[in-house]
Each structure stands twice: as structure tokens, then as C-alpha cells.
């Protein structure tokens, strides 16, 4: 699973490509390479494993004159098939070194294809499915690349976005896609190709997102898009980048994660500011107004991990506020379940990137059965946003850090607004509705208040950074928040943690608790406050360590080993404050452990393979 960036124009672009690699390294970072090719059958290729700076060092030593080169391709890899080695690093090339290929995606039937190639005496230098692809091109080559790629797509199973060069026709670049994202961008006589539309913002004004089954041929300063049936698609719509690229520097912050946590109050305000009219207690959103016209009797939410946890939190809002039964599915599970798609259910998909392959597949299933789909998505023009019936952007800006923080808050904010709009349209309990709307005004100040307490949170986090196991307990609206921060802790500290509904502890997991197994209990002022006190007694009676996340008003402070206080607020808004507090808590533990916080091991930001 990788990121591809290709560029075609007659000017030297090495430093330009390296900058792009550095900029997008946060997404995939196992290995990187660039290849530059000129009309004289000559090419310059550099590969490195692990971080982009390794590649930069190699390229800086290059003495070759690259001024007449005209195709440049860069690639970062997140290993799915085969170890992080130079052999497995792209580009992959044919036996005769005529064809070079980069690939993002997974070819599920590659073992079978590889066996058939081996029978025909093809040899392999690495273990990747991508190498199988380029050797298939070599085996089946006929007429030209375009013809050959169309031919082999018939035997490939599942996802790919590829860019291929034929050294016998070095002025032609061919791209094709099924499943994995790919965008074609235009500058002045320049052509760009990227797996990520964000990468092109500020570089070109116009772009065309490619759809599945499309192939692009760039030749003689011109481009043509065909479908796999060889029909020319002459009327593809151009889009303009609307948003300015946000600041990608981390300034004085030690890590992007910390910077992004400090952006949370602004993200919250940004997602909500122009969508609420506080004078009229109204939600102002054409999309939500349209949504409330639909005859919805049930909601089903589909997402992966952090986005799934946002969905679980929202399920309580949808049920308790909007009175709509809600079911939440992990996208990896939904795909293989029996589906009961119907026209009275709203299918809500949640995704930061808008490219998660598992979620995208589920969306296609629902759409094929005419289900009404709604996306809560962060990345404008992402694949998922282009396919849904309705969508709302979370406006969380690009999230650089691999594990999600501010994007989660953006998702919660939009989901809360959805539940409020549905609630209001159904004329339920107006006073309660008003109370929440009022509490939302200036709520960013309460989140800021949490950030001002960072030193206290840090001091407690440091006391707990050596524990290898931890429980996170919450209940009702806060159970998914406990789940999210158990995930966050795993991602960046590599310590084990589990999350439970606090009521469930006594049904089994309590047996794991001992002196070196602290418990984090979320217990701000909610209707289940007293129930959580009972849990505290169960744990405390055994003299175990309990860190409580409570609100300032709490009178039982002497019951706990350690306390983290959050500002008082209404129950419905506690997830925002606890999420921010727990972000800091996980961050400071990871910091104390000297982890590589922004690039945790084995992970990638955007998971574009199933
Ligand atoms: C965890 C994290 C991932 C993503 C998941 C879905 O911090 O970021 O668990 O939430 O891969 O990604 P999106 O939201 O882009 O669909």
C-alpha cells in the first residue's frame, strides 16, 4: 500500500519530488524511491528503505545531469507483501528492464499469477504482488502499453492504481486504476498524478479524479482518458481546488500530534461556526435540511476504528436525542455480513481520509442496493465523498499525525450536529435541544481550558508511563471514548490496554487487575456517575491504582489514586473534553517512553487496501 506521485514536463524536478516525498511521508514511510527518465533511453533511479531522508542523502550525492529528463515518478511504500527491503521497494521492473511500474493496492490473486509466470521461466527478485504485475505486462505485451494493460486487467483481482513506463517509448506515461485512489492534475503544460488529491493542492489549479476502470495516456503534451472498453472519455469534468492548503509545519511543537491536539478548539469551532445560528437556535446547513426531509426510521453507521468509535459515540446521540434506533458496524465486518439494505435506513459512513478501502467497499454494497448514503468525511474530493448521496465535511484540515486526534473531534462535531438537526425536525423536547445549542456556543473555550491543564495531565501521565497494561473504563456515551483512547495508547506507546464498559469489569476482566495493572475510569457528571462509583469500589477495595477522569465539581476526590479534572459541562458534550484530555495523556506517556510519536511502527495514515 503506497503513495504514487508522477510528474511530466520538460524541466528538472528532483528537488520538487523530494519535497513532495517529505511532505507526504507521514502517510506511508517504509521505503521511497524516485525515477527520472529522458528521451535518450536513459534513466536515473534511486531507492532507499525506511525514511525519506535516506533517499535525500543518496540523491544529493548524484552527479548526473538531469536537465533533459521529462518524466519523474516518486513513491513511498507501506509494506503489505514482503519485507521492507530494497528488492521489494518500487519501481518494479521486467526481466528485460524495459517496463518500470509503481503500484498502490493489493492484487489478491498474485500467488496464482506468480506460479503461472514461474512455469513460463520468469524469475523474481522480491516478494511483492507489484513485481508480479510488471512481469505480467512483459509476458502479455502486445502493440503498446495501453493495449497490454487493458488486456491484463481482465485477470487481476482487486485493487490497483499503477503508473507504467515503457523505455522503448519514453515519452509516454500510462496510468490505470481500479479500487485505489488516483487523481490527475494540471499545471501549465504540466501533468501530475497522485494517490492523494491533497498532494496536488497549491501545485495545480485543476484536477480530474479518476474513476475505477479508467486509463490515462500522457503523450506529446496531451492527455487522453479511456475506459477499459477502449472508449475515449472526452467529457470528464475538471474540478478546481477550493480550499487553501493549511499550514503543514509543526512550528515550535515537538510533534505534529501535539500541534494537532492544540488545534482541537479551532477545529471544533470551525466545524460548527457557520452551521449554527445561535440567535434562532437553528442548524444552518442545506445538507442537513435535505437530510431531515428524508423518511428515516433507522440509522446504520459503518466505519473503521477511530471513525468507528466516533460512530459508537454518535449512536447514543442519535438514539437519545433524535430517537432513532442506531446500529454501528466495523467496515471490515459489514462487508461480509448478510445485508438488509432498505430505503428507510440512513447509512452513515465516517472516514477521515475518505479513501479507506474497507469502507469504500461497504459504500459500494449499500449503493448497489439503493440505500441512502451519508458521509462524514474530512478530505474534500476523496473517493468516498464523490460516491455518496450526501456528505458533510469535518473541516479538520489535513491530519499529519498517523493516529487520529483532531479529526476525531471534527467527526464528533458533525455527528452531533446531524443528531441535533434530526432531533429538531422531529419536534422532540425543545428545551433540552436549546440547552445543547447554548452549551455549544463558546464551547471551544472549555476545550482550551483542558489544554491549559496540560502540565497536570503530563505529571500524572509520567507516573503511569512504565505500566505495560492498563484498563480504560467508561459507560454509555463514554464507553467509545474509553475504546478510542485504549487504541491511541496502543498505537503510540506500544503498551497493552483494553477498554470496557465499566459495568462489565466484574463479569470477567476484574481477574486481570493487580498492583501493576492500573485502571483509568472516566466519570464526569453523568447519569451513571453513581454506577461508576460502585466500579471504583470494586477496584479500590483491592487497593489497586485508579486514575479518574472527573469533572471539577466531584466531591469524592479522596477515593482515587490520581485525578485528572475536566471543566464542568453538560453530559452530551463530555466526549469532547475527555477526548482532548486523553489525547494529551497518551501523548505524554509516549513522550516519556521516547517513542517515534508521529510515525508509530507498522502503521500508515491512510489504509487504501482491504
Ligand atoms: C487511529 C486511526 C485509524 C483510522 C482508520 C479509518 O488513530 O487513525 O484507526 O481511524 O484507519 O480511517 P479513516 O477515518 O480515514 O477511514
Bound molecules: fructose -6-phosphate
Q: Going across the major beta sheet, what is the strand order? A: 3-2-4-1-10-9-11-14
Q: What is the total number of structural domains?
A: 3
- How large a portion of the residues is in β-strands, by DSSP E? 15-25%
Mean pLDDT: 85
Note down, in words, how this protein is organized.
β19, α11 and β20 form a beta-alpha-beta unit. α8 crosses α13 (406-425). The model has no long low-confidence stretch (mean pLDDT 85). The protein has 19 helices and 26 strands. It has 3 domains: 3-241, 4-Layer Sandwich (Glutamine Phosphoribosylpyrophosphate, subunit 1, domain 1), CATH 3.60.20.10; 250-441, Glucose-6-phosphate isomerase like protein, domain 1 (Rossmann fold, 3-Layer(aba) Sandwich); 445-610, 3-Layer(aba) Sandwich (Rossmann fold). 34% of the residues lie in helices and 23% in strands. The relative contact order is 0.09. The protein is an alpha/beta fold and 610 residues long. Bound molecules: fructose -6-phosphate. Fructose -6-phosphate is lined by residues 304-307, 351-353, 356, 359, 403-404, 491, 606-607.
Helix-strand layout with pairing:
Layout: E1 2-8, H1 14-24, E2 31-38, E3 43-49, H2 52-60, E4 69-77, E5 92-93, E6 99-105, H3 110-119, H4 129-140, H5 145-153, E7 160-166, E8 173-178, E9 183-186, E10 191-194, E11 206-209, E12 214-219, E13 222-227, E14 239-240, H6 256-262, H7 264-272, E15 276-277, E16 282-283, H8 286-293, E17 298-303, H9 305-320, E18 326-330, H10 331-334, E19 345-351, H11 357-368, E20 372-377, H12 383-387, E21 390-393, H13 406-425, H14 430-440, H15 443-452, H16 454-463, E22 469-474, H17 479-493, E23 496-501, E24 519-522, H18 529-540, E25 546-551, E26 562-566, H19 574-592
Parallel strand pairs: 17-18, 17-19, 19-20, 20-21, 22-23, 22-24, 24-25, 25-26
Antiparallel strand pairs: 1-4, 1-10, 2-3, 2-4, 5-6, 6-7, 7-8, 8-12, 9-10, 9-11, 11-14, 12-13, 15-16
The protein binds fructose -6-phosphate (F6R).
Amino acid at each position: 500500500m503506497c503513495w504514487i506521485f508522477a510528474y511530466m514536463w520538460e524541466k528538472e524536478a528532483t528537488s520538487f519530488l523530494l519535497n513532495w516525498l517529505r511532505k507526504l511521508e507521514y502517510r506511508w514511510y517504509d521505503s521511497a524511491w524516485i525515477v527520472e527518465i529522458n528521451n535518450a533511453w536513459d534513466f536515473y533511479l534511486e531507492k532507499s528503505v525506511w525514511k525519506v531522508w535516506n533517499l535525500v542523502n543518496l540523491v544529493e550525492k548524484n552527479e548526473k545531469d538531469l536537465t533533459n529528463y521529462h518524466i519523474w515518478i516518486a513513491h513511498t511504500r507501506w509494506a503489505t507483501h514482503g519485507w521492507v527491503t530494497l528488492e521489494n521497494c518500487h519501481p518494479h521492473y521486467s526481466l528485460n528492464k524495459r517496463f518500470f511500474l509503481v503500484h498502490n493496492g493489493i492484487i489478491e490473486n498474485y500467488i496464482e499469477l506468480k506460479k503461472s509466470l514461474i512455469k513460463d521461466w520468469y524469475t523474481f527478485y522480491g516478494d511483492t504482488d507489484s513485481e508480479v504485475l510488471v512481469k505480467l505486462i512483459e509476458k502479455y505485451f502486445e502493440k503498446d502499453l495501453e493495449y497490454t494493460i487493458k488486456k491484463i486487467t481482465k485477470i487481476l483481482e482487486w485493487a490497483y492504481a499503477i503508473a507504467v513506463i515503457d523505455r522503448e517509448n519514453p515519452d509516454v506515461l500510462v496510468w490505470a486504476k481500479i479500487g485505489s485512489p488516483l487523481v490527475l492534475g494540471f499545471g501549465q503544460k504540466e501533468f501530475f498524478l497522485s494517490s492523494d488529491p491533497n498532494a496536488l493542492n497549491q501545485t495545480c489549479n485543476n484536477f480530474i479524479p479518476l474513476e475505477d476502470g479508467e486509463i490515462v495516456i500522457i503523450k506529446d503534451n496531451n492527455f487522453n482518458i479511456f475506459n477499459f472498453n477502449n472508449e475515449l472519455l472526452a467529457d470528464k469534468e475538471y474540478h478546481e481546488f477550493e480550499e487553501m492548503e493549511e499550514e503543514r509545519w509543526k512550528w515550535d511543537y515537538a510533534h505534529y500530534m501535539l500541534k494537532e491536539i492544540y488545534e482541537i478548539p479551532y477545529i471544533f469551532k470551525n466545524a460548527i461556526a457557520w452551521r449554527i445560528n445561535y440567535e434562532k437556535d437553528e442548524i444552518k446547513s442545506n445538507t442537513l435540511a435535505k437530510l431531515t426531509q428524508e423518511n428515516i426510521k433507522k440509522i446504520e453507521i459503518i466505519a473503521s476504528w477511530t471513525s468507528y468509535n466516533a460512530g459508537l459515540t454518535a449512536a447514543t446521540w442519535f438514539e437519545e436525542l433524535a430517537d432513532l434506533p442506531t446500529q454501528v458496524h466495523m467496515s471490515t465486518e459489514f462487508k461480509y455480513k448478510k445485508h438488509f439494505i432498505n430505503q428507510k435506513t440512513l447509512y452513515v459512513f465516517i472516514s477521515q481520509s475518505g479513501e479507506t478501502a474497507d469502507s469504500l467497499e461497504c459504500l459500494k454494497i449499500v449503493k448497489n442496493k439503493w440505500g441512502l448514503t451519508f458521509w462524514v468525511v474530512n478530505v474534500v474530493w476523496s473517493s468516498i465523498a464523490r460516491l455518496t448521496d450526501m456528505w458533510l465535511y469535518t473541516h479538520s484540515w489535513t491530519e499529519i499525525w498517523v493516529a487520529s486526534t483532531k479529526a476525531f473531534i471534527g467527526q464528533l462535531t458533525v455527528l452531533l450536529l446531524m443528531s441535533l438537526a434530526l432531533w429538531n425536525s422531529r419536534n422532540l423536547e425543545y428545551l433540552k435541544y436549546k440547552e445543547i445549542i447554548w452549551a455549544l456556543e463558546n464551547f471551544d473555550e472549555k476545550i482550551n481550558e483542558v489544554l491549559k491543564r496540560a502540565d497536570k495531565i503530563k505529571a500524572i501521565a509520567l507516573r503511569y508511563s512504565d505500566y505495560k497494561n492498563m484498563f480504560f473504563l467508561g459507560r454509555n456515551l463514554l464507553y467509545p471514548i474509553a475504546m478510542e483512547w485504549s487504541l491511541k495508547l496502543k498505537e503510540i506507546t506500544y503498551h497493552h490496554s483494553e477498554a470496557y464498559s465499566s459495568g462489565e469489569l466484574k463479569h470477567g476482566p476484574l481477574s486481570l487487575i493487580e498492583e501493576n495493572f492500573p485502571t483509568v475510569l472516566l466519570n464526569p457528571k453523568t447519569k451513571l456517575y453513581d454506577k461508576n462509583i460502585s466500579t471504583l469500589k470494586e477496584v479500590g477495595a483491592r487497593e489497586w491504582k485508579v486514575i479518574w477522569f472527573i469533572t471539577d465539581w466531584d466531591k469524592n476526590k479522596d477515593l482515587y489514586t490520581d485525578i485528572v479534572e475536566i471543566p464542568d459541562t453538560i453530559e452530551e458534550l463530555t466526549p469532547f473534553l475527555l477526548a482532548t484530555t486523553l489525547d494529551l495523556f497518551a501523548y505524554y506517556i509516549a513522550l516519556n517512553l521516547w517513542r517515534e510519536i508521529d510515525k508509530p511502527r507498522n502503521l500508515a495514515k491512510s489504509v487504501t487496501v482491504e
